[in-house]
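Example for tutorial group B:
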């Protein structure tokens, strides 16, 4: 049925009315607290740039509770070639220049320049430092939720103490600082050491600071009382200068600390560093140690961990320091990635090495956990250290293990130490000769408890087929076996799948999935 002209005309005013409402600036009509909340998700430069939108926006940014400064945004931006596939290169260039010009038009009063293009060409580093001072001087928030600073090359380091002190005076709850020139990645790859940057003493005594993230090498002066950061719950710190008066005191001086992430560059094996992490409140601990480009990981560094409420422990240790672990009664999860290496010698793979035994000592200290993940490097270190003993894990129900090289022969020894294992995840690392020995008796966990096994990166080697056959033949409790192949062709995958499905199964309820 055709629509009459009168019906069409009657709806036209309604459409025009809708268009009229859609053109209204509804965002500007929002209350200031909501606008400030929206701006808090932007870098400070972009938030300040909103002042040019209208008189309504002129002072909204001055009430920001999150101040995030990044000097890369004060430089001339790179061409964004991924804005939209439909945009031409020329269109993308014009778009970037337009956004950048708007931002600097809002900052003209800062530079004292009446010409936007002059502001765009101002020296970017000096402009950044002046910009931070200008924003801190004009923001009105008595309480800061977050102060974040990312700077590739701060020309005046004394300003950092002033900025941090200013944030602390505003009762800041979260501080994040990254100075690229003092970052550990710069030291690791280029070994261009800079003197560590000293932070203000007021940082340690702040009664509002809950989160502190330091991505660069800093000096923290612990008060004479020995207690600091009275309200700090999360601490991430990266260290190159490792004086024992700091490493032995800092991590045990925070009375309510719940999460600690520690990154250390231990490139001087001649200077022994001792770490003391003793905390009754710590729940999550992450540690990463690197040693740079050294010929051996041999060292005498030590770390003491005493945390009765620790629940999760994640370690990446390329130095394999000496661990003394005590009172981890609440620990349930451990991710262990430690590595040991030295220059090859004729007896390198034929003898247990004393430093490699440190990984066994570490495992003994965490043997009450329920979940454990062991990297291929950890298995290699265990292979160098293993003789006849592997610690028992009576509560462990989930094991993730990366296996490659000669570490396959350790698998049964490990399984024999896990009496209540239920889930086993194996990452196979494409080794043609596994050295796997099918011994009797079958580990207790395989006979009574294991319910699920998953093998990833299945390469189709003979020892992998034999291992799957061994599992299917002996595990009565097995409910699911998942095999994820990295075969390149569908024909190869089909062949592997057909061979696996022919194996005898001890469990009547076992499902085999081949992916």
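The residue assignment follows.
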């Amino acid at each position: 049925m055709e629509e009459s002209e009168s019906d069409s005309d009657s709806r036209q005013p309604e459409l025009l009315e809708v268009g009229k409402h859609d053109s209204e600036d509804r965002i500007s009509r929002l209350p200031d607290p909501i606008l400030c909340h929206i701006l808090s998700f932007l870098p400070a430069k972009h938030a300040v740039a909103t002042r040019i939108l209208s008189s309504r926006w002129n002072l909204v940014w001055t009430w920001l509770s999150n101040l995030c400064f990044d000097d890369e945004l004060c430089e001339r931006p790179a061409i964004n070639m991924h804005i939209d596939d439909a945009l031409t290169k020329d269109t993308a260039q014009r778009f970037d220049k337009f956004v950048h010009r708007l931002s600097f038009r809002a900052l003209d009063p800062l530079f004292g320049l009446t010409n936007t293009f002059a502001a765009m060409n101002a020296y970017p580093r000096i402009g950044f430092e002046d910009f931070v001072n200008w924003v801190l001087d004009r923001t009105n928030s008595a309480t800061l939720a977050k102060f974040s600073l990312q700077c590739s090359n701060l020309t005046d380091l004394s300003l950092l103490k002033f900025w941090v002190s200013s944030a602390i005076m505003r009762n800041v709850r979260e501080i994040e600082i990254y100075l690229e020139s003092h970052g550990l990645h710069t030291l690791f790859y280029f070994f261009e050491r800079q003197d560590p940057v000293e932070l203000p003493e007021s940082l340690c005594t702040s009664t509002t600071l809950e989160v502190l993230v330091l991505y660069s090498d800093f000096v923290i002066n612990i008060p004479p009382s020995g207690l600091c950061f009275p309200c700090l719950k999360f601490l991430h710190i990266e260290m190159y200068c490792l004086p024992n008066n700091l490493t032995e005191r800092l991590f045990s001086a925070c009375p309510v600390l719940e999460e600690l992430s520690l990154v250390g560059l231990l490139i001087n094996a001649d200077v022994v560093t001792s770490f003391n992490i003793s905390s009754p409140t710590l729940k999550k601990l992450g540690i990463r140690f690197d040693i740079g480009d050294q010929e051996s990981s041999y060292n005498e560094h030590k770390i003491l961990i005493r945390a009765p409420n620790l629940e999760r422990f994640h370690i990446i240790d390329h130095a394999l320091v000496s661990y003394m672990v005590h009172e981890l009664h609440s620990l349930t999860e451990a991710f262990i990635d430690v590595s040991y290496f030295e220059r090859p010698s004729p007896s390198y793979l034929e003898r247990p090495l004393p430093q490699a035994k440190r990984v066994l000592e570490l495992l003994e200290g965490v043997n009450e956990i329920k979940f454990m993940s062991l990297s291929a490097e950890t298995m290699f270190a265990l292979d160098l250290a293993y003789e006849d003993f592997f610690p028992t894990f009576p509560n462990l129900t989930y094991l993730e293990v990366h296996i490659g090289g000669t570490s396959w022969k350790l698998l049964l020894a490990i399984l024999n130490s896990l009496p209540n294992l239920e889930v086993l995840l194996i990452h196979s690392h494409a080794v043609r000769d596994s050295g796997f020995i099918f011994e009797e008796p079958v580990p207790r966990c395989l006979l009574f408890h294991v319910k699920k096994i998953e093998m990833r990166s299945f390469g189709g080697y003979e020892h992998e087929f034999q291992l799957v056959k061994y599992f299917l033949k002996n595990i009565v409790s097995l409910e699911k076996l998942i095999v994820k192949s990295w075969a390149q062709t569908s024909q190869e995958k089909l062949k592997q799948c057909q061979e696996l499905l022919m194996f005898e199964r001890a469990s009547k309820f076992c499902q085999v999935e081949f992916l």
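Residues 8-20, 75-89, 91-126, 343-352 have pLDDT under 50 and may be disordered. Compare this with the pattern of hydrophobic and polar residues in the output above.
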